[in-house]
């Protein structure tokens, strides 16, 4: 197995500047890198990040899942930045909500319930 170093979720967009502005709002900062024209990257956890790439032919067809420490706090922080999330869905073992970037890519925020215990069968 090769030694992996970093993982980036690539989110294709048609309007790169609108997408960068949207991600800047909820992440709270400018991109960490813009390695080439039409590409912006944010490191969001350890060696994981999001890359927004100008690719109109594929725009809006991706999903990234981000695990968070507190779903209610995350939704509140996103709403404070004018990022609209859907309703929080509660499945006992996880709670989740989704937001859509300007291209229609889905960003799913997930909280994993540390106290969940499946019922014995």
TrEMBL record:
Name the record gives this protein: Bleomycin resistance protein
Pfam families in the cross-refs: Glyoxalase
Coiled-coil intervals: none
InterPro entries: Glyas_Bleomycin-R_OHBP_Dase, Glyas_Fos-R_dOase_dom, VOC_core
Domain called VOC: residue spans: 5-112
CDD domains in the record: VOC
Top-level taxonomy: Bacteria, Bacillati, Actinomycetota, Actinomycetes, Pseudonocardiales
Gene3D superfamilies given in the database record: 2,3-Dihydroxybiphenyl 1,2-Dioxygenase, domain 1
